[in-house]
Amino acid sequence: MRRRDPVRAQRLLAAHTLALADASHGIPLNFALLAGWQREILAEAEAPFRVNDAYAKAGRERYGLTPRTQADFASCLHETTDPDIPLAARAARAYLDVAFFHPFTDGNARAALLTLVHILAREDIVLPEVGPLQTTRYADDPAGAADLATLIGVLNRRRH
């Protein structure tokens, strides 16, 4: 088991507080908002959109960068407010979008978690713990995405 770095954990908690506050103020989810949380997470002055292909899972997954990547990502974030899509599905989709668009050079799993937190908090749903979702997801796994939406629904029901 890997020990958690207390400084890193504190920065995640600070970014979590920002994500909740932004949700309570109705601030729409967009890249600039995520970048603000990311600056807190990484203790960096800047958190730009990545400029090269990204890799994950020890290089087994590659996330390409095209001229449309940033615009496609922005469109996905905009869809998180669509009331015709169930909340758990919107939250799961956004979590996976951040994970697989991989907008930052570092900290994308934490950014994905905060995205999920923000979407749920906009609907007055605050999960009782802050921590990584221990799930394995792949970009081409629709069944895994459905499982994640189900997990989010279960977490929300258990919260009540």
Helix and strand element order:
HHEEHHHH
CATH topology: Fic-like fold
Oligomer: single chain
Terminal residue distance: 31 Å
Number of helices: 6
- Report the radius of gyration as a whole number of Å: 15 Å
Helical fraction:
55-70%
Main pleated-sheet profile = 2 strands, antiparallel
Query: For the residues shown, what is the average pLDDT?
Result: 86
CATH superfamily: Fido-like domain
Q: Any idea what the shape is?
A: globular
In the CATH scheme, the class would be Mainly Alpha
Question: Structural class per helix/strand content?
Answer: mainly alpha
Q: Name the strands of the widest sheet in spatial order.
A: 1-2
Strand content: under 5%
Write the CATH architecture name. Orthogonal Bundle
Q: Uncertain segments of ≥5 residues (pLDDT<50)?
A: none
Domain count: the total is: 1
| DSSP strand count | 2
Task: Describe what this molecule looks like in 3D.
The chain is mostly helical and 160 residues long. It has a single domain (6-159), classed as Fic-like fold. It is 56% helix and 4% strand. It has 6 helices and 2 strands, in the order ααββαααα. It has helices spanning 6-24, 31-42, 69-78, 87-101, 108-122, 142-159; strands spanning 54-56, 61-63. Strands 1-2 form a two-stranded antiparallel sheet. The protein is globular and about 35 Å long. The mean pLDDT is 86.
Summarize the structure.
By secondary structure, the protein is mainly alpha-helical. About 55% of the residues lie in helices and about 5% in strands.
